[in-house]
Design brief:
29% helix
């Protein structure tokens, strides 16, 4: 009898749990970094640490926009060249450390080349693009 009650209770809890999940849609992690797209500040590039050095809600792994115009272009390249080889300690130079390793170097340039001419993001964070949205 006790086993039947436990079985029925578990079945009821499962049914309730499944009913909450109906219509919620699939859980997607496009970049396979362990963070679902709805919570990922950079869903196009793997960044499990969610590093966002300029705190704009777009992860550093997909944000080469140092001029804050939502795209990576010529002015951003000029800025990147200035900071290349540095060990940044504050904003705005920190934003050029695309892989968040403490140095603006070759791996950051590889990311910059990959993203040049694109818009920032995408980010699943609703506050993306606003001041103090994200964090390291």
């Amino acid at each position: 009898m006790r086993l039947n009650i436990i079985t029925l209770a578990c079945a009821a809890l499962l049914a309730i749990g499944l009913s909450f999940g109906v219509g919620a849609g699939p859980i997607v992690d496009t970049d396979s970094d362990g963070v679902i797209d709805d919570l990922d500040n950079c869903s196009s590039q793997p960044n499990p640490d969610q590093c966002d050095l300029d705190l704009d809600g777009y992860g550093s792994a997909c944000d080469i926009d140092y001029t804050q115009d939502f795209s990576g272009g010529g002015p951003d390249f000029t800025t990147f060249k200035t900071w290349f080889g540095s060990i940044p300690s504050n904003l705005p130079e920190l934003s050029a450390d695309q892989n968040c390793d403490g140095v603006v170097g070759g791996p950051d340039f590889s990311t910059f080349k990959l993203l040049f001419g694109t818009v920032v993001g995408p980010s699943g964070l609703l506050c993306a693009g606003s001041v103090a949205c994200g964090g390291v």
